[in-house]
């Protein structure tokens, strides 16, 4: 009997131990479940916060900028109305033909193609930040030649550096080709053939990169067209055809996801394009000779009280403008929304070869309402959109190119805009270059800034 009682007690102890073990495991399991539930709740809260931020960003963008489709439709409707309100232009007269001959002489086509003027997309922001740290001596220089790209068989009219999708540089040339170069290796990556005339201007397309991460080059040409080239697929995939004569400067809008493109042409017009649909949204008429260069006003900023009110009363509607420089020696400012000509700046005595808006973030008085222009009259001038007056100018600069590149003496010059003083001079090789036609700053990771320029002889040089 005692043996059975002992066995029974042992079994009860075993059962109690098993129960205690199960209870302990259950407590640990419950604690773990509660911990997981708390973390799930935190994740859900984060997701909700992120979604709320996305909604707020979308709403803020809608307040700042109208929807791209709405903008495109509005511009199309206004353009249709403007063409209905004005009579058709008469046929070209002998007087107009004479004007074209004068323009051709200015351009330099025909007898001496090497004097074809440069398309200069002068980087206003980099210049100003560089000038503050540049040496005041014009003879000293800490820079040096890093690489030389050779491949073009004619002068290099335009270059652009990609800020997205890799360290690439593209170049457009009088040999009718577009080359793509790897800035890291210094080797050519692609060459595009398709234009039947000189390639006058090249730009990497921010629209295609931001929308679908395609690295795309946009080019303008003497053949009257604007073409788009996909680097990955190695092919042309889009053509904008609308200008009646050579197309020159092109520029993407900093707003609406860079969906708008403006272009200047020898047909005396500036055209506004919808890159997504390839449609012409509007044709700006006013210049009396060909339009060499164009620029969009910079993306608006609300940083600082001086910038919040800087657009007031300048332009109706969304506050964005296009400026253009022409062989008629003028700079004109156009309202992107109302499609009206706002201002005509007269002062240059020869072709305006480059125009550029001042970025807001530089802190320069007037912010994006200041335009800088360079001319074949050897001056660089600053213009205030608000007062419609010239601000100041620097004498002795041989065209806009020479402000940061050169013309015949192969020098690159840096100027202090406020004092109009020359800060620094970089000298190229006059015999090897035969003149510099275009310039671009590039910014590579951990390498600082590099200065790229294209020459009459067809070479591209990288300084750093």
UniProtKB/TrEMBL annotation:
Transmembrane segments: none annotated. CDD domains: WD40. It holds the Pfam family WD40. WD repeats lie at residues 149-191, 192-239, 240-283, 318-344, 345-387, 403-425. SUPFAM superfamilies: WD40 repeat-like (SSF50978). InterPro entries: WD40/YVTN_repeat-like_dom_sf, WD40_PAC1, WD40_repeat_CS, WD40_repeat_dom_sf, WD40_rpt. Residues 3-63 form a coiled coil. Keywords: Coiled coil, Repeat, WD repeat. This is WD-40 repeat protein. It comes from Reticulomyxa filosa.
């Amino acid at each position: 009997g005692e043996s059975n009682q002992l066995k029974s007690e042992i079994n009860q102890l075993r059962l109690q131990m098993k129960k205690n073990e199960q209870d302990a495991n259950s407590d640990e399991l419950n604690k773990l479940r509660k911990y997981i539930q708390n973390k799930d709740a935190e994740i859900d809260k984060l997701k909700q916060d992120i979604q709320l931020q996305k909604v707020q960003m979308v709403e803020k963008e809608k307040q700042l900028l109208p929807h791209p489709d709405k903008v495109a439709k509005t511009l199309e409707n206004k353009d249709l109305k403007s063409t209905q309100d004005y009579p058709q232009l008469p046929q070209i007269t002998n007087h107009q033909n004479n004007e074209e001959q004068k323009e051709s002489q200015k351009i330099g086509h025909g007898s001496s193609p090497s004097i074809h003027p440069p398309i200069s997309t002068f980087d206003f922001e980099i210049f100003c930040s560089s000038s503050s740290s540049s040496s005041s001596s014009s003879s000293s220089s800490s820079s040096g030649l890093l690489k030389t790209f050779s491949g073009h068989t004619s002068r290099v009219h335009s270059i652009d550096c990609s800020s997205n999708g890799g360290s690439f540089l593209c170049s457009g040339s009088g040999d009718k080709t577009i080359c793509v170069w790897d800035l890291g290796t210094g080797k050519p990556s692609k060459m595009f053939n398709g234009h039947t005339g000189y390639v006058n201007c090249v730009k990497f397309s921010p629209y295609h990169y931001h929308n679908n991460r395609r690295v795309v080059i946009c080019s303008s040409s003497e053949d009257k067209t604007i073409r788009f080239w996909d680097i990955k697929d190695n092919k042309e995939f889009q053509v904008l055809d609308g200008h009646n004569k050579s197309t020159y400067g092109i520029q993407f809008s900093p707003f609406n996801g860079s969906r708008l493109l403006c272009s200047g042409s020898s047909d005396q017009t500036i055209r506004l394009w919808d890159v997504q649909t390839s449609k012409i949204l509007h044709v700006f008429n006013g210049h009396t000779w060909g339009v060499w260069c164009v620029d969009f006003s910079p993306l608006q900023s609300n940083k600082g009280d001086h910038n919040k009110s800087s657009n007031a009363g300048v332009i109706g509607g969304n506050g964005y403008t296009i400026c253009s420089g022409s062989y008629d020696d003028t700079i004109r400012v156009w309202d992107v929304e109302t499609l009206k000509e706002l201002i005509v700046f007269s002062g240059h005595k020869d072709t305006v070869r480059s125009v550029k808006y001042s970025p807001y973030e530089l802190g320069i008085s007037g912010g994006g309402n200041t335009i800088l222009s360079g001319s074949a009259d050897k001056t660089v001038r600053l213009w205030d959109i608000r007062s419609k007056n010239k601000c100041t100018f620097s004498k002795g600069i041989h065209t806009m190119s020479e402000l940061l590149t050169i013309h015949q003496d192969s020098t690159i010059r840096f100027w202090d805009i406020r004092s109009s003083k020359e800060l620094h001079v970089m000298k190229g090789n006059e015999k090897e270059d035969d003149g510099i036609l275009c310039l671009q700053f590039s910014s590579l990771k951990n390498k600082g800034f590099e200065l790229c320029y294209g020459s009459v002889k067809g070479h591209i040089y990288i300084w750093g």
